[in-house]
Amino acid sequence: MGASGSKARGLWPFTSAAGGGGPEAAVAEQALVRPRGRVVPPFVFTRRGSMFYDEDGDLAHEFYEETIVTKNGQKRAKLRRVHKNLIPQGTVKLDPPRIHVDFPVILYEV
């Protein structure tokens, strides 16, 4: 549980396939690890949007509608969350691009 996709496919550079050999062998092996398959860039240019469009074309995280409730002869307005007829936003372009979470680099400011 919690394993990312690149670790499952064997692209994580810090894993060692050798059973032993001490720290020197592990460091030498890690330096020679190359990703298998196609080369993946370290940047993320798009993400899945977290907002929704409603029937009117409005964009928001949540939608509410006002309902009138009569209780003991008094009218009272309540907000009820809308779950139906919402369209996901889809793919959103990131500006500027972000660094991928599985890219093994330590960033620091000098």
UniProtKB/TrEMBL annotation:
Any Gene Ontology biological process: negative regulation of interleukin-17 production
Protein known as: Tumor suppressor 2, mitochondrial calcium regulator
Highest taxon listed in the record's lineage: Eukaryota
Species: Bos indicus x Bos taurus (Hybrid cattle)
Lineage: Eukaryota, Metazoa, Chordata, Craniata, Vertebrata
Location of the region described as Disordered in the Swiss-Prot/TrEMBL record: 1-22
InterPro entries (UniProt xref): FUS1
Gene Ontology cellular-component annotations: mitochondrion
